[in-house]
Write a structure and sequence with these properties.
Immunoglobulin-like, alpha/beta, about 25% strand, 9-stranded mixed sheet, 23 strands
Length: about 575
């Protein structure tokens, strides 16, 4: 699920305001900073820093995150050295080992917070992963115990794991619990390689699309936290929890299961599928008491859950992903991260990732300001900031004005700007059943007099000036809109044809195609005259044909009688239908 779309690195100066004023005497000691929204967007920046000699190849990357992000790209033209091409094949959960395949990184150290139980069987272990290509596709080979295999098996698709590789590069992958990181990080990093500090802001606290979907279904944050703790037998992570202590230490306050045995039969019928889905998504088999506690927690919301489509899938996704959105735990996590980071030497680059849909929107400013203050405290003032077009560096208000513009553009790759996620948009954004996996092109034309913003679902992608147009690759069925501020001027759902053209006013369509589907008798004749001879189709055509704004279509029966006519009006959308009957 983290593959959506689906997700900080800014480096801020908070109170001092002088964080970006770089004293000459400190220039050599200050790392390069990278700010991104989605996590895999760090890839071209880090590759550029290696190419420029600011980070030596085969560096050590310390990964502070709620998610391991340790997958492999499914398809990748690795021989193409253009960073935007390489980036186009990675996503938020598989960019780390792509950096390994390109020999930018040799060692990845994942610091796992206690609410993430993805890699528990790998804690305090280092695995050597052999990465290579078979017929141009990334593959991995490794040796592992059964317990290690269970964890590593969740990283890769089955076909990506092979017994051997003719040519490979070895990347070490280490996992350390957050509580152990201050004491272990120096030993894991060693004293030779350059260090990249990779900070996803959701390391301080994380939500997930599944959790947001449950909120949109009517569950309150306290209930959602209780469900997650019940499902995973997890501690209460609040201001009282000591994150420097081992998980399940005496400071762990557990969620009570309630009194009295509750059997499977006593789970209400309307909740049984929801509870079953949650249990299947967890890593343990629930006792009757735990099933009963989950059902009892959900029962007051049964009516809202019944009204929310695909609720079983939402619950499954919620239980399967790391989750802790308690504001009370941010300071405690930050304290342990500080003790970890201050032990790092030779840090040449720091990435900050805002991680849309995972770093809780309501906590983002607090977390970002805390992280940026920590960077300034440890690494000093100064440093160059890199970011892509479309990224507002000071969106959260935590970043002092940078003295020079040092941002980079990665070709045609579109870097999304995260907007605050509104709960009413969650269902359509992550759980819509109308969108397909078919990738098409959507072209948007601003034929109005003022600039407009182009949005994919709730994400602003580009500002379009009057008379301009822009194109994006997207999935058929996805929702887009033209907006000015908070006002939605026009919404469209992208069609399935290779090209889809949408205009704000619909007045500039002479050269833009429209899909036309004919619903006419099968023995009818459907024609139009485009000025270059008559074009004819059979009636009752199931597959749409490409036509254009202003075209006049006519349908005739076998005797030549006119059944009806239709004039294409592109302002009414890309997909249109011509209906006639005998």
């Amino acid at each position: 699920m983290r593959r959506l779309t689906a997700q900080l690195l800014g480096l801020a100066a908070i109170a001092r305001g002088a964080f970006w004023k770089k004293p000459a005497q400190e220039a050599a000691a200050v790392p390069e900073y990278v700010l991104t929204e989605e996590h895999h967007h760090v890839l071209p920046h880090l590759l550029a820093l290696v190419a420029e000699g600011k980070v030596r190849k085969r560096a050590t990357l310390v990964h502070l995150d709620s998610h391991h992000d340790a997958g492999l790209p499914s398809n990748w033209n690795h021989e193409d050295n253009e960073h935007d091409t390489q980036l186009a094949h990675t996503h938020i959960n598989n960019f780390l080992f792509a950096l390994g395949l390109l020999e930018a990184v040799e060692h990845v150290i994942f610091v796992e917070p206690p609410w993430s139980r993805q890699c528990v069987s790998l804690h305090n272990r280092t695995k050597a992963l052999r990465l290579g290509f078979i017929e141009g596709a990334p593959r991995v080979s490794y040796d592992a115990t059964p317990a290690e295999q269970r964890a590593l098996g969740g990283f890769f698709d089955d076909h990506q794991v092979v017994d051997d590789l003719a040519e490979s590069v070895t990347v070490r992958f280490s996992v350390v619990a957050l509580s152990d990181a201050p004491s272990m990080i120096s030993k894991l990093v060693g004293d030779k390689a350059d260090v990249i500090l990779d900070v996803d802001l959701d390391a301080y606290g994380t939500t997930s699309p599944g959790a947001l979907a449950l909120r949109s279904a009517g569950l309150d944050p306290v209930t959602i936290r209780r469900l997650y703790r019940l499902a995973h037998d997890m501690c209460v992570f609040d201001e009282m929890y000591d994150f420097s202590q081992p998980y399940k230490s005496p400071n762990c306050k557990e969620e009570p299961l309630g009194s009295g045995p509750v059997t499977r039969r006593k789970v209400a019928d309307e909740l049984r599928d929801v509870v079953d889905s949650a249990e299947r998504a967890s890593s343990i088999t629930w006792t009757d008491a735990r099933r009963g506690a989950v059902a009892a927690t959900l029962r007051p919301f049964a009516q809202q859950l019944q009204a929310s489509f695909n609720i079983e899938e939402k619950m499954k996704q919620f239980i399967a992903q790391p989750f802790n959105d308690n504001a009370g735990s941010v300071a405690g996590v930050g304290k342990v991260l500080r003790e970890t980071i201050r032990r790092l030497e030779r840090v040449r680059a720091v990435t900050a990732v805002r991680s849309p849909f995972y770093a809780p929107a309501e906590l983002l400013s607090v977390i970002e300001c805390q992280a940026f203050g920590l960077f300034g405290e440890i690494f000093g003032d100064g440093g160059a900031l890199r970011y892509h077009d479309g990224v507002r560096a000071n969106r959260t208000g935590c970043l002092a004005k940078h003295p020079h513009d040092d941002h980079a553009t990665v070709g045609a790759f579109r870097h999304i700007e995260t907007m605050e996620l509104r709960e009413e948009d969650v269902d359509d954004l992550f759980f819509s059943e109308e969108e397909s996996d078919e990738v098409v092109e959507a072209r948007f034309v601003n034929d109005g007099e003022d600039s407009v913003d182009i949005y994919w679902r709730v994400l602003k992608l580009e500002t379009l000036e009057a008379g301009k147009e822009t194109a994006f690759e997207t999935t058929a069925g996805s929702r887009w809109s033209f907006r000015q501020g908070e006002k939605v001027l026009k919404s469209v759902r992208v069609g399935r044809a290779a090209r889809n053209v949408y205009a704000l006013q619909g007045q500039s369509f002479d050269a833009h195609p429209v899909e036309m589907t004919f619903v006419t008798p099968s023995d009818a004749r459907v024609v139009f005259d485009a000025g270059e001879g008559e074009v004819e189709y059979e009636g009752d055509r199931a597959h749409p044909v490409e036509t254009y704004h202003g075209h006049v279509w006519r349908a005739y029966d076998m005797m030549g009688n006119l059944l009806g006519s239709f004039t294409v009006n592109a302002a009414e959308g890309y997909r249109q239908e011509f209906r006639t009957e005998l």
